[in-house]
Design brief:
It contains 12 helices and 5 strands. The radius of gyration is 27 Å and the shape is elongated. Strand 4 and strand 5 form a beta hairpin. It has 2 domains: 5-80, no CATH class; 86-256, Glutaredoxin (3-Layer(aba) Sandwich), CATH 3.40.30. The chain has a 5-stranded mixed β-sheet with strand order 1-3-2-4-5, sandwiched between helices. Helices cover 63% and strands 10% of the residues. It has helices spanning 5-10, 12-22, 34-50, 52-80, 82-86, 112-128, 143-159, 161-173, 180-189, 196-201, 206-221, 243-256; strands at 92-95, 101-107, 131-137, 229-232, 235-238. The chain is of the alpha+beta class and 257 residues long.
């Protein structure tokens, strides 16, 4: 019977400790007798009970390796889908178009953490001045989320980028429920010349469906199950990130070149 893999990996220190007791042949883990294997297992158990920090160190190393592998996999996925992430038509763009850093945010208008992140992200763009932010409509919190995203994209289709920015800002700061009536009132309150009837007619247009379909496909590829989710450099950052943490990420990315 083969020695369990975790004992083979974790037992190095204990193995050294038992060499004197069992002789040099005890180092051959594959040819132990049942008695030697039982004794060796007992030594490992005793060693770990006396030195539990070894187990915690092993867990830390394992977690670090798993995280590194996950980040490497995410970086490969990001590179493979760079065109859809960074160059797709129809996305909302903030910040410096010629920036040295490009971030992507998957966002939902009904997401409380997206609303919480909204002023922090704006502050980061204003403070730094050399970041481009691409916002992807990613409605995953029910019918109101879908309606809000469709409405915002329909505003873009009918009235252009400036109106899209204005309705996005209004939706991110709104606290009321999303209904067709509330959306019509919201757009009428904007300092924009928007044909509301044309917007409502465009809610289910091919253009809107294409953008939402592409974003949903990206969400499946990157296994995005919550918002906000950011693409920052070659990594995914899931969940709300406060301003100070975002500035640290920016500094680390620039240090890496």
């Amino acid at each position: 019977m083969a020695l369990p893999r975790f004992l083979t990996r974790l037992g190095t220190a204990a193995l050294l400790a038992t060499t004197t007791a069992f002789g040099a042949h005890a180092l051959d883990l594959t040819n132990m007798s049942d008695a030697e294997r039982a004794a060796f297992g007992a030594e490992i158990r005793a060693y770990l009970l006396e030195n539990p920090e070894v187990l915690m160190e092993a867990v830390d190393v394992y977690n670090q390796r798993q995280q590194a592998a996950q980040e490497a996999g995410e970086a490969d996925l990001i590179a493979a889908h760079a065109a859809d992430l960074y160059e797709a038509e129809g996305d909302l763009v903030y910040g410096n178009p010629d920036a040295d850093l490009i971030f992507v945010e998957f966002s939902d208008y009904r997401c409380g953490y997206c609303k919480k992140a909204y002023p922090d992200v704006k502050a980061l763009l204003e403070k730094d001045g050399n970041i481009k932010l691409i916002v992807k409509e990613f409605p995953i919190l029910g019918e109101e989320s879908v309606l809000a995203a469709r409405f915002a994209l329909a505003v873009r289709a009918v009235s252009g980028e400036e109106a899209y920015h204005a309705i996005h800002d209004a939706l991110m700061t709104a606290r009321s429920n999303v209904t067709e009536g509330s959306l019509k009132r919201m757009v009428n309150d904007l300092d924009q010349d928007v044909d509301v009837d044309a917007v409502m007619a465009a809610l289910d247009s091919d253009e809107v469906n294409t953008i939402l379909g592409r974003n949903q496909q990206l969400g499946q590829i990157f296994q995005i199950s919550g918002t906000p989710t950011f693409v920052m450099g070659g990594q995914l950052v899931r969940g709300y990130v406060p301003f100070d943490a975002m500035t640290e990420i920016v500094a680390e990315l620039r240090d890496k070149g």
